[in-house]
Amino acid sequence: DGGKVSLPLLADLNGKPFGRANAGVDMTFDFPALIAHAAKTRPLAAGTIIGSGTVSNKLNGGPGKPVWAGGAGYSCIAELRMIETIESGEPKTPFLLFGDTVRIEMKDKAGHSIFGAIEQKVEKYEG
Questions:
Q1: What span, in angstroms and rounded, lies between the C-alpha atoms of 66 and 57?
Q2: What is the Cα–Cα distance from 21 to 7, expressed in whole angstroms?
Q3: Per-residue confidence in pLDDT tens, the chain, 127 aa
Q4: Listing from the earlier edge strand, what are the strands of the sheet with 9-13?
Q5: How much is the pLDDT for 118?
Q6: What is the pTM for the complete model shown?
Q7: For residues 107 and 7, is the Cβ–Cβ distance under 8 A?
Q8: Residue 30 to residue 58: CA distance in whole angstroms
């Protein structure tokens, strides 16, 4: 839309939907504002990557819900754990473990991947 990418960010954990939140819905600052602020505080060069933070959507004025509970889910395990802690006093979702696979991708309205899928498996370093 000229300032925000208003499409779902598809986040999967071990092949199951973890997040389907729309990246533009609850984005506080659009990319032109983020870039302008970054340019005020540091030199930016070609190829600089500007990130907008985690992607999640509010639900009825409060935090969202996991995909398995009918919500749009999350793109950040730490954010979900924080919501779980607020709601029940402790987190239920574990952090990533060896063998876990995370995949993120965003597709346009025709179903074509915008930046390609990023898929990573957590493996133990055997240095």
A1: 10
A2: 8
A3: 678 989 999 999 999 999 999 999 899 999 999 999 999 999 999 999 888 888 999 888 888 899 998 899 999 999 999 999 999 999 999 999 999 999 999 999 999 999 899 999 999 999 8
A4: 16-19, 9-13, 101-106, 118-121
A5: 95
A6: 0.84
A7: yes
A8: 17
The string of DSSP letters for 62-87 reads: B----GGGTS-BBS-HHHHHHHHHHH
What CA–CA distance (Å, rounded) separates 33 from 31? Answer: 5
**How far is it, in rounded angstroms, from Cα 57 to Cα 62?**
9
> Which residue is it, tokens 């973890």?
18
Structure tokens at 95: 């952090």
pLDDT at 50: 87
Token representation of residue 78 = 């730490």
CA dihedral for 79, 85, 90, 93, sign (positive or negative): negative
Quickly tell me which residue has 């802690």 as its tokens. 85
If you write DSSP's letter for every residue of 90-121 in order, what string do you get? Answer: S--SPPP-TT-EEEEEEB-TTS-BSS--EEEE
